[in-house]
Known about the structure:
Blueprint: H1 2-19, H2 30-55, H3 57-71, H4 77-95, E1 107-111, E2 118-120, E3 125-129, H5 130-135, H6 139-154, H7 157-176, H8 181-194, H9 203-219, H10 225-238, H11 258-272, E4 277-279, E5 286-288, E6 291-294
Parallel strand pairs: 1-3
Antiparallel strand pairs: 2-3, 4-5, 5-6
Helix pairs in contact: 2-3, 2-7, 2-8, 3-8, 4-6, 6-9, 6-10, 7-8, 10-11
Cofactor: Zn(2+)
Signal peptide: 1-24
Amino acid sequence: MKKKILCLAAAAALLCGSLAPAPAAEAFSLGDIIGIAQGAAQYAMLDKQFKYYNDTEEGRQKLFQSYQQELGVLHDEEKEDELAGIMNRLTESIGAEDPDIYKKPYLYFICPDESFNAACSMGHVMIVNDGIFKYLTNTDEIAVVLGHEMGHGQKNHVGNAMYKKAKTNLGAAVISGALGDNALSQEVLSLAVNQIETVQISRNDEKEADKLSFDYIYRAGYNPGATAAVWQRVIEKNGDNDPTFAQEVFSPSDHPSNSERRDTYEKRLTALSKKHVTLKENTNTLEVNGKEFVTPAPA
């Protein structure tokens, strides 16, 4: 009986505690509320500018022209034709599953920079360095690099990363309202053009772009073996993870290593061929049913 009384007393205490009035929440002042509303309005302006450059044709063209002015344009008919041919085939490959690509077709040009690099900014604006054509003489391998960048574009990886960077770099000015609509537009454009090489793409985004590149080039009719061959070529020339080799295609140290990416592609190739086609370990030599078939010519 005593235990029962103690239990009832404990229950009553808990009940009384639950019915006791909660402590008053700290009230927001009118100034706090106005400040929050103003901050939200300013960030809405930032959203508006990003959507302008990412989604509208006028904004995309401005971004495209700004990149050309900043980086320069290489006019080489043979390379331009090759680039256009690859982009058209990859666009058709992507469009077979995602017809929205035709609503925002890629804008691209060749930059005279001879380093091995390519990048896809927001708005489906692509920059392809001349070094891509000098380093890779095989159209299938060039398609791998472009497919990788289009993977970033389709998933808006760079646009999302740029937005985070803009919130960090411009946050105080945005919240304070120090930048008007036109000034904010110019700041966003400047950030996109001048900091494309410093935008951080996550490890998962890189892996997703690699996977999509394989899918895109395979459906486009390119040799899927080129996926692993590109990375083997890079390893032979620059080692497993040289951070100075390129800024975007071969990304910072927290991203997959060159050998990891090659090995991932090798596994996909083996699975695709039902284990009939493999790449000889640590080489770019193709084997069919365990017998050497072909080794790509050096670039």
